[in-house]
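Reopening this one. Same input as before:
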Amino acid sequence: MSKKTILTLGAAVLLAGASVAIAKGKGILFPDWSKPTKGTYEAPAGEAGTKASSEQPWSTTTMASSIMGKPVKGTAVTKVGEIIDLSCYQQVGKHGDKHKDCGTKCAKNGQPIGLLEADGSIYTLMDEEHDPRRDGLTAFRQWAIDNMANVVTVNGTMTEVEGQKAIYVQGYLKK
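Same output, byte for byte:
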C-alpha cells in the first residue's frame, strides 16, 4: 500500500469517528467505562441539601454578603446525578466506581466536586452558606467526598454565569 493510500484511509477513519461523535451529541463521557458505586439515576442512593425556597433561594448569610444585597440570580432545584471529581472528568472522562479512589483523593486535596446528570449536564457543587463556607464552618464537601461516585439527589440553588453552572447546597453547617 502506498503512503498516500494509507494517509487517505487514515483520514477517512478519522472523519468517520468524528462524524459518529458529532452525531452522538452530548452525554456522559465514556458511559460504559464504569458504573456508579451506589444508586442509579432512577433510584438514587442518597440525598443532599435542604430544599431551597423558590421565593428566596439564598441563605441570609449569602444575602448579607452580596453586593448591595443582590446576589446572582439563583433558582431552587432538585437534581439527580453522580458525584464526580470535576478535574478528572473534564480532563480524561473518568467517573464511576473505577474512579472512586482517585476522585476521592482529588476532592480531599481541593479539586472541584461536581454532579453529573444522566444527559451529561455538569454542575459544580459547593456549600451555599457564604460566610460559614469561607470560614471553614460547613461540611458539604466532606459529604460529597464520602459519596464520590454515587448517584444521589441534590437539593440547592442553581446559578449559571457565562456557561458555568453551579448548585449551592444548604444545610451543612458544622455544629
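So the earlier flakiness isn't reproducible anymore. For the record, The mean pLDDT is 89.
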